[in-house]
């Protein structure tokens, strides 16, 4: 039995060892998998320390938790809280990144002071616990539990300890999963399996997706899905209050919450394996004969080769960067990154593989490469997933983000007979919109972003890059079962006819927040002013046509192409997407945007200037 921070850790018994692939060489096992033979160790002691908790929020928790705690046989150990006095000035609101929390966790980079310290992380975890108790209307009849997983970042373990302390500090139980994927964490709130202590009431993924090695952050889930912006704001406000109470004298008392460790990824991966087996007529090895290479970019996705593909019979030699390495030494784990796509494409070609699969750091995004080395990401991935989903659900609505191409709309609507609902950027936005459409009677089975985030109704709207790839695997397996020629042809054929532009660029125009031209306005207000002027200019230009239906920014057709200028979800940036059939036409569209942008001195137009000049 290991004990950290004064709180007992149990390794949960695992009669579920059958799920365990002992050949699995990735760090997953080291980090998250307790050896299969441990018994559920007896909880030590029976004494409870019962001291006051300082935060008003936590006080309210205690009213509900205390009933349970008094009844229970839990030990209670004082946990020393490491207080970093420099973090007392931290602006918690700055840690919000849409519906996630992100900050700097590793010091050393100039101009990037650490704001995700251990005390900050602990306060955020306690705040999440108090939020969860309210949401779940906890009445003290049972102790709530929270699962904690992390990606491969070098700050993962330190933050895991801090987050565990924060949760137990509020009187909730912790279940540690170690190295895990973001979708697995959400899934743990839905899984019914007592042996694995599931379902948990809440889940926390420690990740900063594809951001540099010095960053980290949190994503939170309940069985209703990922928390939204308003919830994160609420949690950060609570955390700021909570953080003020940290004294650094190590005198905080704890309740008898337990910390246990389970190999939840075994459940999650076996669900993926079973999904492919079931869809291919319950064959044990439906992918026998296929050679599929995986590139995990040294993130958390290495499990996919040994725990999903190999049990299904696929050969995975030539897979690369499966070992977790939080410095990401090979390429950024991001299917939108050109270098990353080049790396997996090369691996497919070098190994003469049938398919390549690439994940981002925390496996909620993915992309593929076919046997000819063609990338299946962005609009092509959406087209492919739409083709698969529309075969199963004819005429259904496909919800996408705002930067999808006109060619994609034509493909979904004319070739596949579906409806394309181009909504806003942001994976949570598209998923929530698909759920909303269903609630008002418009059937939708797929919500997907060009970034590689995607969720299916059949998979509880879980934003899951691995599940998207499972749908491709099912396609391969079914083609094989029908005796169709091998390779990835069945997949490539599905997107035949998708019109693709000769030129597709994204330029990000930064707003200098310290520029006097802002005149006290926020960057959002400034950005809105740019968009307003652009809209006015477009309306006066007969060669340009504003998109009749548009949910975000200014989207315009003209010169045989289109552009979209919008505000970034999080940054003081106006991303500009341009697609056209020639460079010349793309430049004409760029110039139309520049006419408005040039009126705003705080807007850095250098990328756009360069684009229109060098073309
Ligand atoms: O608005 P942008 O700066 O382009 O960022 C947009 C992206 O923000 C976050 O990373 C979300 O997780 C993504 O779902 C979204 O695509």
Automatic annotation (TrEMBL):
It is an enzyme of class 5 (isomerase). One of its GO terms (cellular component) is chloroplast stroma. Keywords: Carbohydrate metabolism, Glucose metabolism, Isomerase, Magnesium, Metal-binding, Phosphoprotein. Belongs to the phosphohexose mutase family. GO terms for molecular function: metal ion binding; phosphoglucomutase activity; phosphomannomutase activity. CDD domains: PMM_PGM. Monomer. Gene3D superfamilies: Alpha-D-Glucose-1,6-Bisphosphate, subunit A, domain 3, Alpha-D-phosphohexomutase, C-terminal domain. It comes from Kalanchoe fedtschenkoi. This is phosphoglucomutase (alpha-D-glucose-1,6-bisphosphate-dependent). InterPro entries: A-D-PHexomutase_a/b/a-I (IPR005844), A-D-PHexomutase_a/b/a-I/II/III (IPR016055), A-D-PHexomutase_a/b/a-II (IPR005845), A-D-PHexomutase_a/b/a-III (IPR005846), A-D-PHexomutase_C_sf (IPR036900), Alpha-D-phosphohexomutase_SF (IPR005841), Phosphoglucosamine_mutase (IPR050060). It holds the Pfam family PGM_PMM_III. Its EC number is 5.4.2.2. GO terms for biological process: glucose metabolic process. Its cofactor is Mg(2+). Residues 96-242, 268-373, 378-478 form the Alpha-D-phosphohexomutase alpha/beta/alpha domain.
């Amino acid at each position: 039995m290991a004990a950290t921070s004064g709180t007992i850790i149990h390794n949960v018994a695992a009669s579920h060892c059958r799920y365990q692939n002992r050949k699995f060489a990735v760090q997953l096992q080291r980090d998250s998998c307790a050896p299969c033979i441990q018994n559920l160790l007896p909880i030590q002691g029976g004494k409870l320390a019962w001291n006051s908790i300082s935060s008003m929020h936590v006080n309210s928790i205690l009213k509900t938790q205390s009933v349970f705690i008094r009844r229970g046989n839990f030990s209670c150990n004082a946990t020393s809280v490491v207080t970093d006095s420099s973090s007392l000035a931290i602006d918690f609101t700055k840690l919000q990144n849409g519906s996630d929390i992100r900050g700097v966790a590793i010091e050393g980079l100039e101009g990037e002071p650490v704001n995700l310290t251990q005390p900050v992380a602990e306060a955020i975890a306690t705040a999440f616990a108090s939020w969860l108790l309210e949401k779940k209307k906890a009445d003290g009849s049972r102790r709530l539990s929270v699962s904690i997983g992390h990606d491969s970042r070098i700050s993962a373990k330190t933050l895991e300890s801090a987050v565990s302390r924060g949760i137990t500090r509020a009187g909730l139980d912790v279940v540690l999963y170690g190295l895990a994927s973001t979708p697995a964490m959400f899934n743990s709130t839905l899984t019914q399996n007592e042996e694995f202590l599931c379902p948990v009431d809440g889940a926390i993924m420690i990740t900063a997706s594809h951001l540099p090695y010095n960053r980290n952050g949190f994503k939170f889930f309940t069985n209703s899905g990922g928390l939204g912006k308003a919830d994160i704001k609420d949690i950060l406000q609570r955390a700021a209050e909570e953080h003020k109470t940290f004294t650094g004298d190590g005198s905080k008392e704890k309740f008898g919450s337990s910390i246990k460790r389970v190999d939840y990824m075994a459940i999650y991966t076996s669900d993926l394996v079973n999904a492919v087996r079931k869809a291919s007529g319950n064959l044990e090895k439906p992918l026998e004969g296929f050679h599929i290479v995986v590139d995990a970019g040294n993130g958390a996705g290495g499990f996919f080769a040994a725990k999903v593909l190999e049990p299904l019979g696929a050969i995975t030699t030539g897979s690369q960067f499966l070992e977790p390495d939080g410095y990401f030494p090979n390429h950024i784990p991001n299917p939108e990154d050109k270098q990353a796509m080049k790396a997996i494409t090369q691996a497919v070609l070098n190994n003469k593989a049938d398919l390549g699969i690439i994940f981002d750091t925390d496996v909620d995004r993915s992309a593929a490469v076919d046997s000819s080395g063609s990338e299946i990401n962005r609009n092509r991935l959406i087209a492919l997933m739409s083709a698969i989903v529309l075969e199963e659900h004819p005429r259904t609505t496909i919800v996408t983000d705002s930067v999808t191409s006109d060619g994609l709309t034509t493909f979904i609507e004319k070739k596949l007979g579906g409806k394309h609902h181009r909504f806003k950027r942001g994976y949570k936005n598209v998923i929530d919109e698909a759920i909303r459409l269903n609630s008002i009677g418009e059937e939708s089975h797929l919500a997907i972003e060009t970034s590689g985030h995607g969720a299916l109704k059949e998979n509880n709207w879980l934003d899951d890059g691995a599940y998207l790839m499972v749908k491709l695997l099912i396609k391969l397996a079914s083609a094989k079962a029908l005796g169709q020629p091998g390779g990835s042809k069945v997949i490539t054929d599905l997107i035949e006819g998708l019109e693709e532009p000769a030129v597709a660029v994204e330029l990000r125009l930064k707003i200098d927040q310290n520029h006097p031209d802002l005149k006290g306005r926020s960057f959002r207000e400034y950005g809105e002013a740019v968009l307003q002027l652009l809209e006015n200019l477009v309306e006066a230009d007969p060669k340009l046509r504003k998109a009749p239906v548009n949910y975000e920014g200014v989207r315009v057709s003209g010169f045989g192409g289109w552009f979209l200028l919008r505000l970034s979800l999080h940054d003081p940036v106006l991303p500009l997407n341009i697609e056209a059939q020639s460079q010349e036409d793309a430049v004409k569209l760029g110039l139309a945007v520049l006419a408005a942008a040039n009126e705003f001195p705080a807007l850095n137009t250098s990328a756009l200037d360069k684009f229109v000049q060098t073309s």
